[in-house]
Write a structure and sequence with these properties.
Blueprint: H1 5-13, E1 17-26, E2 32-42, E3 48-49, H2 51-60, H3 64-85, E4 90-94, H4 97-100, H5 105-115, E5 123-128, H6 129-133, H7 137-148, E6 152-158, H8 165-170, E7 173-179, H9 180-184, H10 199-204, E8 209-213, H11 218-226, E9 231-232, E10 241-242
Helix pairs in contact: 3-5
Length: 302
């Protein structure tokens, strides 16, 4: 069935928005360090609609601020649960540039995030590279306001690596996500004088971590380790999995369990007493007690 704005609006108004989580692991240990949260809409017929299908329509109808609000609230609930179990893990939550320029919504979002400032070290707000490149003064002011409240940013879907790490770091970006084929492809489109194998270290000197996603096979992992890549994401480790509805119920206040400064590697999570979902066969090396295993039952079988 074809998708139109009315269908997207209906899904938003009836709360047919589901949250999916995919782990981001350290390399070469393959220990879960973060989760990326993505939203999918359910059509009236029950069909799952990915962001690539509904976001352009949602933006055309000014629906992204409302979607972002719902997703951010859920991410914060999940982070609270995570912090009760482990202080060395975090969540990536997508935001639209449209949200940053919405005069009605942005103050509400800032107030909401300010009320949850204690979890700021564990919540990373993620924006698409193309959206950041097109931002105007209003959006940059919104970014600055979020940064002032202690939130860090991730630049997602980077396809052109001719970036200015100093500028990005000054604006609060602490992570850059690149597809594996972009970093490993033959024709390098990066900074002059910088080779692909040096890119991770270049970012690191500016306090930015490189995350490589869409990792599908073991050969890519070997090649990425040669490039000093420290974080990876992809179906090789685990596909995105839906969040169980009960995991989105309000959790006890996690402010007192706020994460201290995150170490480079961190400590293993405690083993779960009631595994919720077995790890995928490719993620057996991931540490026990992750969201896929936690007794809170956050992740459902995909």
């Amino acid at each position: 069935a074809s998708l139109d704005l009315a269908a997207v609006r209906s899904a938003v108004e009836t709360n047919r928005i589901d949250l999916y989580l995919q782990p981001i692991v350290s390399l070469p240990q393959r220990k879960v360090r973060y989760y990326e949260a993505t939203s999918r809409l359910r059509s009236e017929a029950g069909e799952m609609l990915h962001a690539s299908a509904f976001v352009p329509l949602a933006e055309s109808g000014d629906l992204m601020p409302k979607i972002d609000s719902m997703v951010a609230f859920r991410c914060i609930q999940l982070v609270r649960r995570l912090l009760l179990k482990n202080h060395d893990i975090g969540m990536f939550c997508h935001l639209s540039a449209q949200t940053l320029s919405d005069a009605t919504f942005l103050p509400q979002m800032l107030e909401f995030l300010a009320a949850n400032r204690a979890i700021a070290p564990s919540l990373v707000l993620q924006f698409k590279h193309s959206a950041v490149a097109a931002m105007g003064a209003t959006e940059h002011e919104g970014l600055a306001a979020l940064s002032d409240r202690g939130f860090r940013f991730s630049l997602d879907d980077v396809t052109d690596l001719r970036l200015d790490p100093t500028e990005l770091a000054n604006r609060g970006f602490r992570f850059i996500k690149v597809h594996s084929d972009v970093l490993l492809k033959t024709h390098w489109r990066g900074l002059p004088g910088v080779q692909p194998a040096d890119f991770s270290d270049l970012l690191g000197r500016h306090g930015i971590e490189l995350i490589v996603d869409r990792i599908e096979n073991e050969k890519s992992v070997i090649d990425l380790l040669d490039h000093d890549v420290r974080y990876g994401q992809g179906s090789l480790f685990s596909p995105p999995r839906p969040v169980r509805p009960e995991a989105l119920q309000p959790a006890p206040d996690a402010a007192d369990a706020r994460a201290p400064a995150r170490s480079a590697e961190g400590n293993p999570l405690p083993p779960a007493s009631h595994p919720a979902v077995p790890a995928s066969p490719r993620a057996q090396d991931a540490e026990p007690g992750t969201l896929m295993h936690m007794s809170t039952g956050i992740a459902a079988r995909g």
